[in-house]
Please model this.
Amino acid sequence: MADRASDIHLEPTKTSLRLRMRVDGTMHEVANLLPVLGPAVVARLKVLSGMDIAIHRNPQDGRFSATVNGRGLDVRTSTFPTIWGEKAVLRLLDRTGLQLSVSTLMSGKTLDGFRDLIKRPEGIVLVTGPTGSGKTSTLYAALSELAESGKNVITIEDPIEYWLPGVSQGQTNRKAGFTFAQGFRAILRQDPDVIMVGEIRDPETLETAIEASLTGHLVLSTLHTNGAVATLTRLLEMGVEPYLLASAVTGVLAQRLVRRVARAAARRCRSRMRRGISLARTSPPPSVAARGATSAAASATAAGLACTSCSR
Model:
């Protein structure tokens, strides 16, 4: 928690049990434990997460809750059999750290445009980006604002990462045959105003989402693509007709997480800005733009040093 880790990896090797953490998107090795500890640690995690401790050859998923230093923590657990034993990955979800306001995640024209999209009574709004880029956090922030407006908000997720007040949240169950498509169709009979689907994974779910958006519902979902334009190509590849796509999809938001320099370790430096591109600006100065952005200009940026505050 103190290191702001998002994931903890327990990886068995031939000679040790390697413990690593992912902090700000980068993996950091923490310790190498005795390999004999691996089975006992994984078995304990299975008990906490409600898994079957007798199953070692198949992957399993589970979750549990804990309190660390007075902060509520949800832990998603995943096991995977490897040649040296079962690997376990813990996804740490800090309930107190969830930003439930869109204004804390974006600003300027992006904020105004996104709020305009989620305030519309119908249509599909998609948030895209790679794994771990904050897509779910963005949707949860949007759902929180919509729930406060008194609308009937229902979700179907896999899994539920955070519990939101005022939102009816459902979770898929593959063993019981409860899929995204089946849950989506059931939600339509619950008189919803806003529907959030964790991810559009198959043509059936996409078809149901389009039907819902065309019948007066606002649908929010995520898609794994590299950009906003690629999202439309991906939807066409899933079999949707272009005219339905144009009528149903109202907006696509592509996002990334950017690593920031710690304030305690930042130092001023001077960098050369060429062709109007700078790490510290989103557009070139007027003088550079007037010259066609062909000349070099000096721009003040911040460079990171070894930080004693965050140990990174």
In short: The chain has a mean pLDDT of 83. The longest helix spans residues 135-148.
